Amino acid sequence: MRKQNLDAADSPLSLLHLVNKRSANVGNGALTEGTESVINEDFQNHIKWTRLAWDDYTFGVKKFDREFINLINDHSDGMIVGGAVAINGREFYGDAGMRFNLPKELWSEIRQPLIFYGISYRHWENQPYHHQDKLLWVLDFILNSDNMTLAFRNDGTREWLSSKFGFSSNKIDVIPDPGVFVQADSNGYYPDLKDDRLNVLLAFNDEDSNYRYYTPGSRQKMLEGIVVAVERMLATHKVNLILVPHYFDDLRMIADFIDLCKPVLAHQHMISTELGRISSSHHFYGRYLKADLIISMRVHSMSPSIGLGVPMIPLTTQDRMTDFLDGIGIGDLNIDAFDDNLSNNLTAAIEKTLANPSVIRDRFIGARQKMRLQMKAFNTKAENIILRTQTEMQ
């Protein structure tokens, strides 16, 4: 155990942050930087952060074993488990039924605080959930441990668990998506943006494509609707369209989208950006700050746009997106990607947003303020758990 006087507010806390450090999905940067920024602001003690690559453990580079437990117990004052998708029923999560795949016999050996900071689910109606029994045991253990707390993201994860498995508890916290509090570079250099045009970002989402677009023809029909709306926008406005992939999956959808567009549009009005890890997320989301409009299919395109106050149209393909939007009071802005009238709905939303962007900005700013207060309340709880545990261990 680390030796230090934790009574003084200026005595630093050493926290491990379990994050998707290696991933080329830039949304992990929004989650990681957002989490650390609000904890830095709210905790009375200064934080010394050490990021651990959760993806190393997910993909077998490292193991959830006693060495992992020793990292928590002997080299930190606690661990923040980052707010990524953790409950997705993969077959290889044989020990815990989720991405924090720690074997059952090791859970009781964790002495330092373990804070699950807005973890989320991603599961499809036609998809099996493997090791459900292990998952439910782990969640019950966390909720009944004094040195642990469980907070789900505000995207319907708690409600999904209740409806899917009948699991519920008043000990579960629900907190805002930490990606709302993304850190962005306001002074970055972006040669892809044009001063004499409206800069519109388009973030596709082809993740879990076989499940997300399960109905035959739904993906093609959706893309055709988006193409119609985009071509109308480019015909009536001076637009520079920037395609902003968040992960490799999106590149496949970008290629299919371009194939459906008129060649002149792709050649003269479009450009695409590169992928990025956590280290480049400040720059990536700095581009968002400078955009006139964002059309978002990605969760961590939507929540950062809201947090940054940038006009955004959410184009949704799953319940966890609509649950998030409804829960923060902006569900009326949602455009259902599978609606038969998608092209007209999206065109109407584009025209309405471009005509009066300040209305959207003000609603986003108000939503962010409410979420910031919710996050502050949870951070007080989390810090109290950490400080209480340290006092008990001295």
Describe the structure.
The protein is α/β, with parallel strands linked by helices and 394 residues long. The protein has two domains: 13-179 and 372-393, Rossmann fold; 198-368, Rossmann fold. It contains 14 helices and 13 strands. Strands 1, 2, 3, 4, 5, 6 and 7 form a seven-stranded parallel sheet that branches. The protein has a six-stranded parallel sheet with strand order 10-9-8-11-12-13, with helices on both faces. α7 (218-236) crosses α8. Residues 1-6 have low confidence and may be disordered. InterPro entries: Polysacch_pyruvyl_Trfase. Pfam families: PS_pyruv_trans (PF04230). Residues 25-317 form the Polysaccharide pyruvyl transferase domain. It comes from Magnetovibrio blakemorei. This is Polysaccharide pyruvyl transferase domain-containing protein.
